[in-house]
Amino acid sequence: MRVQALGCYGGEAYDCQLTSLLVDGKLLLDAGSVTTTLSLDTQATVDHVLISHIHLNHVAGLALLAENLLGVRSRPIEVWSIPPVINQLKTHLFNGILWPDFSVLPSPLRPIVSFHELLEGRPHQIGEYEVTAVGVHHTVEAAGYVISDGASSILYQGDSGPTTELWRLANRTAKLDALIVEASFPNRLGDHAVRTGHLTPELLRAELTKLRVQTSVYAQHMKPQYISEIVEELTALSDLPVSPLDQGKTYHFGTP
Ligand SMILES: [Zn+2]
Ligand SMILES: [Zn+2]
User: Fold this and answer.
1) Which residues surround ligand 1, an ion (CB under 5 A)?
2) How far is the CA of 14 from the centre of ligand 1 (A)?
3) pLDDT of amino acid 51
4) Is residue 39 part of a domain?
5) In a domain, 254, yes or no
6) What is the CATH number of the domain that holds 233?
7) How far is the CA of 106 from the centre of ligand 1 (A)?
């Protein structure tokens, strides 16, 4: 499984792109920066988008991607999430006010976007991937995912404070090649992180004690103003296999 870290930050700045990961050029995990990091031609090759939650830094690129695909793709781009998130995307983003409803444009029969609900805890086939969603702990409904291609599996946490079901899912996944987790704030802002449904490096350490499998852990979604502090604190977790996710890097998991 090839995973491109298009963007891996929780805020945007000149050199910080919002969270968006592209699996094998086809499956997008969140869509913060998809339109600012991919050419128009490459944007058109994305078939599926998994959205963790509706916060703007995860869906801004989805809105802009939909517009870019008008007149370009013959099939809709398939957008997947748990039912409350799909409902929020329809109600609050593609609502004809904040942004056009591309699920009925240019026509209801041939729309740009098609929405699909994923029931929690149950594997679903999305293209060539088996995807299982579970709810995580954030200020709005949010999901984490395990994505498997048969040969390899990764876990994508999305935004979440301390949680349980996601780690249970990790522990029952046969071969987990990587965890892509969040570390939004430095340790000194632990209270703020918990209140807003996020993690610090120390909170991440506690979360990883719930893990019963050995795998690599990549931290992302750092807020730009705290990057150097968070990276230093992640480095201090030297007893754990945690490293910051590198923006722009392509990772190969499971297969050579
Ligand atoms: Zn976020
Ligand atoms: Zn969020």
Assistant:
1) 10, 55, 57, 159
2) 18
3) 98
4) yes
5) no
6) 3.60.15.10
7) 30
Strands (E), 96-208: 113-117, 124-126, 129-135, 143-148, 153-156, 178-182
Banded pLDDT at 256 (limits 50, 70, 90) = low
pLDDT digits (tens, 9 = 90+) for 111-120: 999 999 999 9
- C-alpha 96 – ligand 1 centre gap (Å): 24
- pLDDT value at position 238? 85
Whole-number pLDDT of residue 5? 98
* Domain residue limits at 20: 2-245
Instruction: Return residues with CB closer than 5 A to ligand 2 (ion).
Output: 55, 159
Ligand 2 centroid to 79 CA: how many Å?
18
* DSSP label of 230: H
pLDDT for the residue 174: 87
Describe the crossing of helices 227-235 and 201-208 by its angle, rounded to 10 degrees: 40
How many domains is the chain partitioned into structurally? 1
Place of tokens 């103003």: 225
Q: Whose atoms come closest to the Cα of 139: which ligand?
A: 2
255 in a domain, yes or no?
no
Which ligand is nearest to the Cα of residue 10, counting in written order? 1
Q: Does the residue 137 lie in any domain?
A: yes
Distance 19 CA to ligand 1 centre (A): 7
Closest ligand to residue 196's CA: 2
- Using the mean position of ligand 1's atoms as its centre, give its distance from the Cα of residue 40 in Å: 24
What separation in Å is there between the alpha carbon of 183 and the centre of ligand 1?
A: 10
- What pLDDT score does 11 carry? 98
